[in-house]
Structures are given as structure tokens and as C-alpha cells.
Amino acid sequence: MRRAVALAGATALAVMGTGAWLPGDSAAAAPSPSSPSSRLSSSPSPDLSRYYSQKIKWGACEEGGAGLLIGGSDATPVPEDKNIRCGKITVPLDYAHPKRDTIKLAMVRIKASGKPRGSLLLNFGGPGGAGVSGLLNSQKEFEYLGKGYDVVSFDPRGVGESSPVSCGNDAGADDPAAAGDSDDPAAMLDQMRKTAEACKKKSGPVLPYVGTVNVSRDMDVMRQVLGDKKLNYLGFSYGTRLGSVYAAQFPKNVGRMVLDGVDTLTEDVAEQALVSAEGRQTALDNFVKWCTENPGCVLGTDARAARGNMSELVKGLDAYPLQSSDGSEFTGQDVVDVLGQALYSRQSWPALSQALGALLADGDPRALLRMGGSLAQQRRAPGDVPADNMAAALMAVNCADDPDRPSGKSVEKKVTKLQKEFESTSDIFGKSMLMPVLFCFGRPAGTDYIREDVRDVKSTDFLLVGTRGDPATPYRWTEETAKRLGSAAVVLDNKGDGHTGYAGSKCVREKVDGFLLYGEMPPNGSSCGVEEED
Fold first, then answer.
1. 3 state DSSP class of 330
2. Distance between alpha carbon 41 and the CA centroid of its chain, in Å?
3. Based on the number of CB atoms within 10 Å of its own CB, is 205 exposed (0-12), middle (13-18) or buried (19 or more)?
4. How far from chain centre, in Å, is Cα 445?
5. Three-state SS across 154-192?
6. What is the three-class DSSP state of 240?
7. I need a labelling partner for 283 at 20 to 30 A (CA). Which of 35, 341, 414, 459 fits?
8. Contact 170/192 with Cβ under 8 angstroms?
9. Nearest 10 degrees: Cα torsion 42, 45, 47, 51
10. Considering only CA atoms, which of 132, 127, 134 is closest in space to residue 13?
11. Closest C-alpha to 281, from 97, 490, 428, 431
12. pLDDT tens-digit map of 24-46
């Protein structure tokens, strides 16, 4: 379940909130935030003043090798831009015991081009998306918002340059979630158990302390260190879960907040995986309809027949993979992987159509492989960050947020029972989406705070954007989460396609910018229609 945001131009990860309060030259006196739930801390109101009163030292961002680095002996300076600065803040490893170990979190800030009214904090989804390199690679997407805000992003704990977690080679793959055989639940459980041990060994002391609850607390430290009385925030995809948890933990500190591509707060991993398979199938159906309505579509002119042909293509290549000269194989699941990535952004649809045409007409998968490689490259970990960091962080955060830990026998029975349900939901995506059901096997149970306590938020109103054709965060989650969060949640219904709305819809962008910059909240239940391609 790589829930990550698609930016315009098929950028794989993206994201963006504001208060009218203008910060002074120095931060206000550090608050003493209390623990939001007795389940979250064994100490009542631990003293966090040393963290809230710290000063961040901003300096030039540096680049080396494969991507962005924050310092390091092999780093070379990025071309000088005094408006773009990187730095690190210190937060407690364990908020229940803030006097013990600490970790440093990497941040990046792009100074406002106009008169600043504070900071706008971005999260690029995932979980596992690096915010520092993400913002540096998508500066133009936020130029308009940057007229009124210092635009800021960060690598959450366990991600990127913030004590990155990893499962290493012991996991058996760069993507530890890709190991195993979904036709053999017992073998998959054994692999997940080995993966959990490898992650524990390779990640170090940060692993037990990743998760949305702690990242939300980190964000409140960032708010104060940045000099903001209120947190102004734009979160995409998983970033909406993070924003929801922040609003529940620190309701009085919420400024202008936008949650785009709304995540679930209640469903267990099996139900999430099933809904995700359904969302991907809906997105594929929309793509097929779009293709068959355009002249020259390789899938033909009959959408129903084209959907059947796509299913047969995947099944046929799984049974009889294409063989390359070096002995490697191209299977139906390789097609599924590219589809799952390309459907995140409507801008990718023309290229996807052409690549499928080459495969169907000539048996040539190279265009699909190049497309999948290009999209994967956009998610690649920067610099010296472990190659599997995003996948490892995704598993670690989702498991930290999930309190369910059934026994191996019950999981085996559940997976066997769910196989038919997944395949009936989507005979193309169902098989691959079974894997998330097993992600957390062999790991400690996570917090029940999100599922039990994140509800009826008593904050200022914030905006939720749901997209009807979203393949990763289906629109029903927007409605369910809005109802759960209560009257403060205002819904904008985007009737378009793709994962999240800000990048792909001019209407959504205008309404989000209007709220963040000028406080113009759209009426609850208002909508943006489907927009024609330029």
C-alpha cells in the first residue's frame, strides 16, 4: 500500500495549511503540552521545554551522489540560493522519557517571496516519503503558496535523513514487502517473520519509536521552533492521517489545515488492502474508458471487452512470462506494478496507453519497464539513505499505527478466506494487495490511539479533499473520516481522477490556495468537476 502523492508531471510524491498570526524574530515561550492520551505516555505532562525552546541553525542544502544530503564528507553544495535552507532539529526518541536519547530530524525551508505570514508545513505521504528531497524536487508546485508562506518540509523520524530505518539484504529484496508468495500464506508468514527480525537488526533504536503519533508530536515541536503560534499544514495521502492525528493531539494549535487524498483512521489492514484493490480497479476502469473513447486506442473501442483483455493479459503473462536474452522474465505482476504506479496520475495515461500498445502489438515490454523504472526513480532514496528506506518505513509506520496482531493460524485462515474476495474485487490487483494483510506479522502491536481517540476534533475548521477516481485513497474514506473527525472537517468533492486533487485539478488548486492564503473556506460538500486535458 504505497500511499504516496502524485504531483503534476507524474512526480511520485507530493504535498501542503496557514494562520494570520505573523511571527516575530524569536519564538514565544515554550508551551508545556500534556499527553493527549493515557495510553501514549506513562508520565503525565513530561517536560519538553528544551525541545520547544531550541533554535534551528539553517544552512546551505548540499547534494552528493544519488540525491540530497544534509552535510556529509562526500557532499557538494547545491547551487547557492539563500532563500532555500536546510537544517536539523532535535526531538526525544521517546516522548514518555524526554531526558533520555534524542534523534535529529532533517528539515528544509524555502523563504516566502512576499510578505510572510508564517510557515506552511508539507508532508508528502507514503508513509515513508522524504520531505526534504521531495520539496527541493517540486519547488515550482508551491511557488504560489510561497508568496505568502515560508514553505517547509521534513523527513519524518525513520525516513530519509532522519535516522532512516532499513530491513537490509536480510529481507531478501530491496522492497521487503515484495517477498513471499501470495498463494502460500504459511510461506508468506515465515518471510514476514524473517523480515521483521531483519528490520529490527538493521534499523537500530529508532524503530520502536516511529509511527504517526510520535511524528505528530515532532510536528508540534517544529511549529514552535519555526516561530508559529498555529500549525499551518498541507498533507497528502498518508499525510492526511498525520494531520488528523495532529488535530486530535493539539486541537488548539491547528491553523489552516488541508488534507488531500484522505486516509482511513479506522479500518484494519485487511480491509484497507481490500479497499485499495477496489480503488485501483476503479482507476483502471476509468483509464480503460478514457482510452477506448480516444481514436487509435490499442485496447479497442469496447470498454467492457478491453477490461477483459487486460485481465487475460496479466493472467497470460503470469502463466507464460516473456523471456529476455539475459534470462530475466517479464510477468503479469510486472504489468500490475506499472499500472499501480501510472494510475496515480492522469498525466501518465497517454504514456501508459503507448507502452501497453507496444506490449500488445509486438510483445515488447521495454516501454512499460522504462515507465515503471522512471516512476520508481522518483521515489528512490537520496544520497546515503538505504535503498529500501521508503518500503521499510511504510511497513514500520503502518504497523506502529495498527493495534491488531492475530496469531499465525488465524492469519493463515483469514488470508485463505480473503483470497477469493480480493480476486472478485479485482482479478488484476487483488493478488498483489493481499500482501499488506501480513505486513505486521512478527512485530509488536501498535497504538490504539488513532483508532480509538482520533474523533470529534475540537479545532478550527480544516479542509478535506477527496477525489472520486483516486486509486489509493478512495472517496469513501473522505466521507468516513470527515464524519469521524466531526463538524470541524469540511469536505471538497473532486470528481476527477488520480491520487489526490491538488496537482491534477485547477479547481482544487484554486480552492486550496484560496483557503490557505486568504482563509476562503469552500462550503462543506462543494465540488470540482472533471477537467479536460489541455
1. strand
2. 26
3. exposed
4. 22
5. ECCCCECCECCCCCCHHHCCCCHHHCCCCCCHHHHHHHH
6. helix
7. 414
8. no
9. 90
10. 134
11. 428
12. 222 333 333 333 343 454 445 78
Q: Is 125 left (phi over 0), alpha (psi -120 to 50) or beta?
A: left
pLDDT tens across 291-311, in order? 999 988 989 999 999 999 999
Least confident of 218-227, 248-257, 409-418: 409-418
CB 109 within 8 A of CB 152: yes
Counting Cα atoms < 13 Å in the Cβ hemisphere of 85 gives 12
Give the separation between CA 110 and CA 81, rounded to whole angstroms. Answer: 9
CA 301 to CA 112: how far, in whole Å? Answer: 49
Section 220-245 average pLDDT:
98
Q: Is a pLDDT exceeding 90 seen at residue 227?
A: yes
Residue 27 and residue 225 in contact, taking contact as beta carbons nearer than 8 Å: yes
CA–CA gap between residue 497 and residue 390 (Å, rounded): 25
Mean pLDDT of 231-252: 98
Residues contacting residue 479 through CB under 8 Å, at least 6 positions apart? 466, 491
Which cell numbers hold the place of 511?
480552492
Give yes or no for residue 176 having a pLDDT over 70.
no
Q: Residue 455 corresponds to which cell in the numbers above? A: 474523533
Grid cell listed for 57: 541553525
User: Do residues 509 and 463 touch, judged by C-beta distance below 8 A?
Assistant: no
3 state SS of 206: helix
Residue 415: strand, helix, or coil: helix
pLDDT tops 90 at residue 276: no
The answer, yes or no, to whether residue 379 has pLDDT greater than 80, is no
How far apart CA 512 and CA 495 sit, in angstroms, is 15
Give, to the nearest 10 degrees, the angle between helix 269-292 and helix 349-362: 80
Mark 4-17 as b/e (b = at least 16 C-beta within 10 Å): bbbbbebbbbbbbb
DSSP letter for 26, please: S
* Residue in 314, 316, 320 with CA at minimum distance from that of residue 284: 314
- What type of residue sits at position 240? T
Q: Are 259 and 477 in contact (CB under 8 A)?
A: no
Cell numbers found for residue 309: 483483455
The Cα–Cα gap between 327 and 153 comes to: 43
CA dist., res. 277 & res. 280, Å (int):
5
3 state SS of 332: helix
Distances in whole angstroms, Cα of residue 48 to Cα of each of 33, 156, 246 = 8, 19, 17
The answer to whether 445 and 403 are in contact (CB under 8 A) is yes
